[in-house]
Fold this sequence. Notes:
Helix content: 55-70%
Strand order of the largest sheet: 6-7-8-3-9-10
Largest sheet: 6 strands, mixed
Distance between the termini: 17 Å
Strand content: 5-15%
Radius of gyration: 35 Å
Number of strands: 10
Number of helices: 20
Oligomer: single chain
Order of helices and strands: HHHHHHHHHHEEEHEEHEHHHHEHEHEEHH
Shape: elongated
Structural class: alpha/beta
Amino acid sequence: xxxxxxxxxxxxxxxxxxxxxxxxxxxxxxxxxxxxxxxxxxxxxxxxxxxxxxxxxxxxxxxxxxxxxxxxxxxxxxxxxxxxxxxxxxxxxxxxxxxxxxxxxxxxxxxxxxxxxxxxxxxxxxxxxxxxxxxxxxxxxxxxxxxxxxxxxxxxxxxxxxxxxxxxxxxxxxxxxxxxxxxxxxxxxxxxxxxxxxxxxxxxxxxxxxxxxxxxxxxxxxxxxxxxxxxxxxxxxxxxxxxxxxxxxxxxxxxxxxxxxxxxxxxxxxxxxxxxxxxxxxxxxxxxxxxxxxxxxxxxxxxxxxxxxxxxxxxxxxxxxxxxxxxxxxxxxxxxxxxxxxxxxxxxxxxxxxxxxxxxxxxxxxxxxxxxxxxxxxxxxxxxxxxxxxxxxxxxxxxxxxxxxxxxxxxxxxxxxxxxxxxxxxxxxxxxxxxxxxxxxxxxxxxxxxxxxxxxxxxxxxxxxxxxxxxxxxxxxxxxxxxxxxxxxxxxxxxxxxxxxxxxxxxxxxxxxxxxxxxxxxxxxxxxxxxxxxxxxxxxxxxxxxxxxxxxxxxxxxxxxxxxxxxxxxxxxxxxxxxxxxxxxxxxxxxxxxxxxxxxxxxxxxxxxxxxxxxxxx
Length: 618
């Protein structure tokens, strides 16, 4: 669209393609100190808000966790009973009965575990679907300037990878967390019931596990944040360069692109390796600590067993060591969960970052535009994309209903910026823009944009049928109205020659059509929307002369009775305009009809003379 925006998109400072971009070849953020979560507590609180919306299922999971923990605790005690009452006494029939009972208990536990997982999958999928919906809704409400400095691949990564990470964490980690807490508490009570002394020893050994886990978690948290950002950068690079594969091939940049991709890919691999290697230390370290704890418990238990002052059986010591395992295992699992959880929280924070971006909003008391005449006036309008670098300086003009104004000037002069302000893709810094006397800052964006039709140089079509693409601007239009709009746009003839006519499915951005055919569909789409104000932004600059004649005829039909703005490089389109605004360095330096401007022998006349002599476009 605008010249400034194009500069940002194609690699201006700080833009997606520039040296400061996270996915660029020299992205600086990867080499510095890894970034921690900005708001750990706030992110957790917001995630819990999404999860507890499924409180009915979560309560059911919690109850199942209690049941599983109780069964586990009771069955563990039965193991000690088996040793003392059946194995030691040689009661084989009794041993068989108790083993059958244990088998039934374990079957019930397995069924409860399956039900718990099933319920948590429902919770996680519902939560992720809600998150994805809220994020997508938030993206739809963001101003255009947000997308000027964000890679679409990075946004895609947040919608897919980050939310998938959250979903997996909820489905896998939450049940373990519930079960872990209940198992630890229940096991601790059972351990005290068997031997208070051994239970105290077990408690004294626990801080060693927690302390080491805390150190590891502190190291891994920023690394997972870094890994998540690197993944978004890689996705952005892939999406951008897959879309521009023709240009890459045309200019022979394959080797450079491969090199840049490899650099980003290596940074991701390095970040993931560091994060997951640090995370992987947790398991072996905990196993070592657990073995040490078992050794201590066995030594203390043996001393108690041989002491005449303490009544503890061999079966009790056996059951206690099993309890010790059940006591340490959930603690280890919950500590290990912190690695998974912090990875998910890093993704959640990235999702919330976009949700927290300032959306497009209408000023209080904004009015709805309807049935406008098309009287457009700009008064002393100023605007800058970057503060301190004005792109438009004190621009003023007045277009009466039904008039056609052309805007010409060198690339980067500010032509398209005028249009971007009129449609409120950006809001002006000073001055005013009015339609039928209504300041557009006090008009709802939706009604404003419904009143304006646009045909751009780069036509975008969706991967739907030709019929639905034309109908996009007015979904309520009938099939006959769509065909009539196509006829007026001189598109009906080629549409009927397509394999399935109006029902032909278009590929990505209409890739199975020529540029001229896509342009005619865009004109038909604008015709069907029936706007009162029309914008033609270099609408014929990318098509051949023969197709241009058909497109110009269609545009004349489209402009009839409408207030029209034309940004065009080919003077054949603008010679008949009611007024031509000549923009240079952000200022309107000349205005008048084609004949008047030629007679002035000023900047416009020089542009026209240059085009006439060299055949180059203005």
